[in-house]
Write a structure and sequence with these properties.
Blueprint (H helix, E strand, L loop, with lengths): L1 H23 L9 H7 L4 H4 L1 H16 L9 H20 L4 H13 L3 H10 L6 H29 L2 H22 L11 H14 L1 H29 L7 H17 L2 H7 L3 H21 L4 H26 L7 H70 L11
InterPro entries: MFS (IPR011701), MFS_dom (IPR020846), MFS_trans_sf (IPR036259)
Organism: Chitinophaga pinensis (strain ATCC 43595 / DSM 2588 / LMG 13176 / NBRC 15968 / NCIMB 11800 / UQM 2034)
Keywords: Membrane, Transmembrane, Transmembrane helix
Length: 413
């Protein structure tokens, strides 16, 4: 029986990783092909950049309103239902012909891509001993989806046109939904209250767990850098003197995938309790990468190095954060993930917005300055959080040491 369970789990984890990657990729297909989409519906660069912001905003709202249902409903049914909605929305996007249609459908593509983040906390329940490693494996699949999306969309757009990107994706989402229907285990939910109590319980976690607040803020800042970088990089690479094609721009995602495969190492560090050291390194990589590409904005080698280490830094930070927050409450993984990922993608939307604003105002130079601002703020969160946690631990130890454990005085009658 145990051997069957082991075989089942060894097959489930790769399936969950692939499924999460296929679904979340839809938020990022637009980044290397923004110019092509804009040209086909007769809108400007600045206006079409809203597609990336709206898809991230939709995903962030989906995190808050849909992800908590993973603790109340059967996750398998919820995942398959949302995947079906996503496939239909992608099909509609492939035929969109006006800016309004593109904007609305972009928002719903983000909203219905939430199964990726329902799958992730589900994976965390399979192996509590090596939670960081297990989460790292599934999150790596999600990262490959995020980063491979740029490669796939760039190449398909160059060969067939951008509409085929979304038509092919609709078929891929439908395929993994069928596989999940066949093989994903049906786990009974733990939460028994109604939907409003579920949301109330979710919000209460913010007040209850200081570590959750710290991790969410850190995640939003680093992912803000990441999304700001990739959105403005597209405009930087198509402009003079580089003039790269969509296929070339998308191919840089292959470099980032290499970084994603290295990132799970930091999940092992988190399992060993070395989270502060891990976060200092990962956030340092983010800042160092932005500095490099700022100094050498037109260097091909600097761009490759920047993408590789930026991706390691951002994604390893998220893996470390996931390992930390999933240790807080065994039966509230979806709700913990809700707070973290909602904040995470709000940071993405804000980072994308300010990236576009910076590009419009001051080009690549101003865009990289605002990325450095986000990165510096992230480093400050890591350092300040460690000091706050250390002070709290010291107060707890002092309270334990000074507590009077002697029995109360007994008055003889």
């Amino acid at each position: 029986m145990n051997q069957d369970k082991t075989r089942l789990h060894s097959g489930i984890i790769p399936l969950m990783a692939i499924s999460g990657g296929v679904m979340i990729a839809n938020i990022y297909y637009n980044q290397p092909i923004l110019k092509e989409i804009g040209a086909s519906i007769n809108t400007s660069e600045a206006a079409i950049g809203r597609i990336a912001m709206l898809s991230q905003l939709g995903f962030g709202l989906g995190m808050f309103f849909l992800l908590p249902l993973g603790d109340k409903l059967k996750r398998k049914r919820l995942i398959i239902f949302l995947a079906a909605c996503l496939a239909l929305t992608l099909t509609g996007f492939a035929f969109a012909s006006t800016p309004a249609q593109v904007y609305v459908l972009s928002f719903f593509i983000g909203l219905f891509s939430t199964p990726a983040q329902i799958i992730l906390p589900m994976a965390a329940t399979l192996d509590s001993t090596n939670r960081g490693k297990t989460v790292g494996r599934v999150f790596s699949g999600i990262l490959v989806g995020i980063l491979g999306a740029r490669v796939l969309s760039g190449l398909i757009s160059e060969w067939l046109g951008w509409r085929y990107v979304y038509g092919i994706s609709a078929m891929m989402v439908s395929s993994v939904a069928i596989l999940l229907k066949l093989f994903l285990p049906d786990v009974a939910p733990k939460f028994k209250g109604n939907y409003f109590k579920l949301l109330q319980s979710t919000l209460s976690l913010i007040r209850e767990y200081r570590l959750l607040r710290q991790a969410a803020l850190l995640g939003s800042l680093t992912f803000g850098v990441f999304c700001s970088f990739w959105t403005t990089l597209t405009f930087h690479l198509v402009s003079a003197p580089l003039h790269y094609s969509p296929g070339t721009i998308g191919s840089f995602g292959l470099i980032a995938i290499g970084g994603a495969l290295v990132a799970p190492y930091f999940g092992k560090l988190a399992d060993k309790g070395n989270t502060y050291k891990s976060l200092l390194i990962t956030v340092g990589l983010v800042i160092g990468s932005v500095i490099l590409i700022k100094i050498f904005p037109y260097s091909f080698v600097a761009l490759i190095v920047c993408i590789f280490f930026l991706d390691i830094g951002v994604q390893a930070t998220q893996i470390t954060n996931f390992a930390r927050i999933y240790s807080l409450h065994e039966h509230a993984h979806s709700r913990l993930n809700t707070i973290y990922m909602t904040t995470y993608f709000i940071g993405a939307a804000i980072g994308t917005y300010f990236g576009l604003l910076s590009w419009k105002t001051g080009g690549w130079n101003l865009s990289t300055w605002q990325m450095l601002l986000w990165g510096t703020a992230a480093l400050a969160v890591v350092i300040i959080s460690e000091r706050v946690n250390a002070k709290h631990l010291n107060r707890t130890l002092v309270a334990e040491e000074t507590r009077d454990f002697s029995p109360p005085n007994v008055v003889n009658s």
